Amino acid sequence: MKNTRISLFLVLPAIIISFAFFLLPIVQLFKVSVVEGNGISYWNILTQPMYLKSLLSTVGLSTFVTFVSLVIATITGLFLTRYEFWGKQVLIAMLSFPLAFPGVVIGFFVIMLAGRQGLFAQIGLALVGERWMFAYSMAGLFLGYLYFSIPRVVLTVMGAAEKLDQNLIEAGRSLGASRWQIFCDVTVPTLRPGLISSGSICFATSMGAFGTAFTLATNINVLPMTIYTEFTLNANFAMAAALSLILGLVTWVCLGIAKRQGAASVGMGG
Amino acid sequence: MKNTRISLFLVLPAIIISFAFFLLPIVQLFKVSVVEGNGISYWNILTQPMYLKSLLSTVGLSTFVTFVSLVIATITGLFLTRYEFWGKQVLIAMLSFPLAFPGVVIGFFVIMLAGRQGLFAQIGLALVGERWMFAYSMAGLFLGYLYFSIPRVVLTVMGAAEKLDQNLIEAGRSLGASRWQIFCDVTVPTLRPGLISSGSICFATSMGAFGTAFTLATNINVLPMTIYTEFTLNANFAMAAALSLILGLVTWVCLGIAKRQGAASVGMGG
Amino acid sequence: MTDKTNSVEITLKNITKTFSDGTLALKPTDLTIKAEEILVLLGPSGCGKTTTLRLIAGLEFADSNGGSINFGDKNVTELPIEKRKVGMVFQSYALFPNMNVSENIVYGLKVRGIDTAVIDHKLAEMLKMFDLEKYAKRGVHQLSGGQRQRVALARAIITEPDVLLLDEPLSALDALLKARLRGDIRTLLKSLGITAVYVTHDQEEAMAMGDRIAVLDHGEIAQIGSAKEIYLQPKNAFVADFIGQMNRFEGNVIDAQLVLNTGKKIPLSSEALASSNANETLSMMLRPEDIRLTKVTDEQHALTGIVSSSVFLGDRTRVTLEKVQKEGKVIVDCFQRIEYPSGQIVALSFESKHLIPLQG
Amino acid sequence: MTDKTNSVEITLKNITKTFSDGTLALKPTDLTIKAEEILVLLGPSGCGKTTTLRLIAGLEFADSNGGSINFGDKNVTELPIEKRKVGMVFQSYALFPNMNVSENIVYGLKVRGIDTAVIDHKLAEMLKMFDLEKYAKRGVHQLSGGQRQRVALARAIITEPDVLLLDEPLSALDALLKARLRGDIRTLLKSLGITAVYVTHDQEEAMAMGDRIAVLDHGEIAQIGSAKEIYLQPKNAFVADFIGQMNRFEGNVIDAQLVLNTGKKIPLSSEALASSNANETLSMMLRPEDIRLTKVTDEQHALTGIVSSSVFLGDRTRVTLEKVQKEGKVIVDCFQRIEYPSGQIVALSFESKHLIPLQG
């Protein structure tokens, strides 16, 4: 018993100091955003179109990506869980391929699909004699974000669907419910925590995606790129700090929601 | 029964086509790496010092970061699980702060700590009259990677340690084992899957980290930066593709290991 | 709900079930469950009892070899569960976790689009019947195991199904609650007058619950009959061992007696003798509670054994005897709170009518 | 290991345990466990039985109010489990998942740095004793519940502890295996001659296992004694209800009889009368197996009831009677395979010595 108390008093300060180091940059960030910006950085974000547009378009893009990912992934995930067919295991293993590439490479993927020499350009050329190109637009960004979001949600939905108690569905059927009634009343509520959790992570990842956006060098300034530009090129530290804190806050809330719904620890990293 | 079969035949092709789209870029990448590189891209990686150095330094850095993260995080995680003290819940909540920031912002953190105006510079100036600066070196990169790796591993270790059956430890004690023997024979083996899993993810994240490296604009060319440079600036598509595939393969294997050890679906994204 | 429902007779004719992996889960089976009867399907795991229940429910479909399942006059062989008018109660309760108690109970009425006033009336009736009024608005996760079971039952019978199917409904509960609820459920089923099929692996539960019991073994019905028939006249060793404790004696028939391998002798009844030949090897079974232990008076002729342990279990003393036969022990249940010290030699006596000949 | 170990007497004097949240888990308790005795701590969850075991183990420490725990002459009150020489068997088995069967069994010797040859010799002995030779190299996850339990026992006794502590070691197993293993474990403990403390919430297991049983209730020992003492002379209603089924009769003492609220009369024994006053309200308890049912011959004077249900349970028929008292039912276990149709009026008879006066 006494040993325990001694080790507690020895280790605790060490841990608190380490934590302080963890927090220091965030505190510093806040200081910079307020002091160097004369307290008007946050006001500027709301009033200057450039920043506001960056914030809103990032939020909009992320929301849309999340929504589309959830719909596609739920259908696919339920389908993959419920039916057995030849090659299913290979298909599922392939699903994790996109997760293995960093944002930069995913940017290239979009260029290969929708760039000047891309697949869509070839198809367009063959069909209507005109290259279909959208790699460097909002659509390209959307495609790239979908690419790394869908597999993540599909795998979560599959995990949740496998845990779905078949007796619940059978109970619903014995009570005379139709397939659609069971889907709405039993399946979806059971999947809900998984959907909220993976949706939150999907949203947070999209909000913080830098590599993809940077590679596509798009005209749409998503938030992480704006932060980079302000800090490195414009040396507008206060604005970069304010935007970073807003982005961090949004992501932190999303991760908190995901964790509440039972997701393992996840983070943005890189 | 018949309905099932019809829906299977309707949905299956749709899903296979979607999967094809998922795979297409990867196949394309492989084609580019082999065809455009005249088949010697992979050979070049091994023989040209610039590429080999990039590959080896990325692997080395990631390995070291993973190792240090595991050691620090295991001690911290076990400590936080085992002892109750005032403010513990706040400390744990603070742990997830670093996970909320994208790589770009974490790069800034390193600059704020170890840059020209950073904390270490101030301390050095006060102590020895000389600015301590290492933000733009391997050490700075190491610090940044640690910053986003440690919280992730700590949270995993805490999750695993909470599930640790206290009876196992009590059984060991009843058999006369010392604290250290129990740590080695009972605690560590129980945590092992969690450590392997979060270590793998930590390694994969470090391998693919772009934002942090790019912000620090370091002289060490880590792999994602090399890929970016080859593709965008040097237009050496074959080399970029070959490096991407190698990076993807390494990451995919790591994620596979993590998943085998029971991690939820994770990915690089962004 | 206070009226008796229209109960139906269930008839299975030549029903077979092969799983997709080729396992024969149910060998060709004929089974009739009378209207208003509670039939218990009893057996160890993997014996086919749950498969039989799921075939009756319409959750599985029988092999297409001409077999049929009828509910009364109606052939339901091809009908899925939605169209069979069955109520089901699952071992896991299978309550909808996103609905509260009331929402769970009325779900079967709601999906049918029944009028709200009718639903409310029936709900009130159910809540009262199952003593759940206090819990009407509670989430199902806040309920105890016994309360969940009552909600599951209420949900199953509110739609007034023709048949009620119960799949080990009590096995998740503790022993005391189990013993109480099985009486309640039987009373409920009898008052509803509903035809019910009840699956369990617990022999005491089966005897307490069923009008008849079908003991299943390896995908076929080993015996079907009342609890008494099955306990007192088990058709084979499997049934005898599965329903309660059983002693077995093996020997040769010599001079109207069964001579064991220790040379000890058991007198046989005239029925047993009539169906066996002299010198034939014969196995006889005997329940522990049918044996009485007495002092050894005539060591030469008596059937004796040595007490190896004697355990007081409250309502009985369970005495284990050695050396009656060369191998195996004989278990005796004594209801007269007497002690038997280990090592004591005792004589076994019993009425020869209690000896059960082992067939097959 | 074939020799008897040096077993010790365990003495708890004025031991109290308060949890950090302020709950009093164990009220001041004195308890002596004799050398070589198997003492069973029996009670519902939260009664303090596991806390008592953990205090004896040294996994918890008693409140510092002068109480003491002795193993023989040695005061171990302040010693942690590592230094108490106790073997423990847990409900969850607590086998080390990263070690195989042999590694688990020898762990206690290995950490002590015992010579390899000695370890190998003892391991072989244990594997043989517990019939685990075939599984020596298996991972513990490949074992059945019963096998895991045997490994846990082997691991606990290989170090030859002074005391063996078992915390519900059978409660994770199914009923049949449980019944078999409890006999095996008792035989083992007796052959080792080790002092053992056995925690369970199962009364039949307690009676089959213990030399003495301590029934705990709300952090104190309600009664301690042999199975027979506790079953036949329960000190209070809690003990009576916890050990087996019990009927309760309440009434006033009039003319040497207990007059129930239905006016029916129960004759009292002279002992019961001696300790009660006329007109006093008295509660008497009676076991279901102590009641005999007979035909009503003298309706005026007999104690009668109406059969509400009669369930054949194999070795007994459990008859439930109504209307003996105004409230509650009387349960009777009949061992003479007789049927009692519902609604029949029957007379209850019993020897007055079987009536247990309810105290407290």
UniProtKB/TrEMBL annotation, chains A, B:
Please state where this protein is localized: Cell membrane
- Is the keyword Disulfide bond assigned to this protein? no
Domain ABC transmembrane type-1 as annotated: residue spans: 55-258
What CDD domains does the annotation carry? TM_PBP2
Transmembrane stretches in the record are 7-30, 50-80, 92-114, 134-155, 195-217, 237-258
Q: Which UniProt keywords apply?
A: Cell membrane, Membrane, Transmembrane, Transmembrane helix, Transport
Q: Does the keyword rRNA processing apply?
A: no
Membrane topology, as annotated, equals: Multi-pass membrane protein
Source organism superkingdom: Bacteria
Q: Which family does it belong to?
A: Belongs to the binding-protein-dependent transport system permease family.
Output this protein's name.
Answer: ABC transporter permease
TrEMBL record, chains C, D:
The record, for Gene3D superfamilies, names:
2.40.50.100, Nucleic acid-binding proteins, P-loop containing nucleotide triphosphate hydrolases
Q: Which PROSITE patterns match?
A: ABC_TRANSPORTER_1 (PS00211), ABC_TRANSPORTER_2 (PS50893)
Q: Which PANTHER family does this one have?
A: MALTODEXTRIN IMPORT ATP-BINDING PROTEIN MSMX, TREHALOSE IMPORT ATP-BINDING PROTEIN SUGC
Q: Which GO terms describe its molecular function?
A: ATP binding
What protein am I looking at?
ABC transporter ATP-binding protein
Recite the UniProt keywords alphabetically: ATP-binding, Cell membrane, Membrane, Nucleotide-binding, Translocase, Transport
InterPro entries reported for this sequence: AAA+_ATPase, ABC_transporter-like_ATP-bd, ABC_transporter-like_CS, ABC_transpr_MalK/UgpC-like, Mo/tungstate-bd_C_term_dom, NA-bd_OB-fold, P-loop_NTPase, Transp-assoc_OB_typ2
Domain of life, per lineage: Bacteria
Q: Does the keyword Transport apply?
A: yes
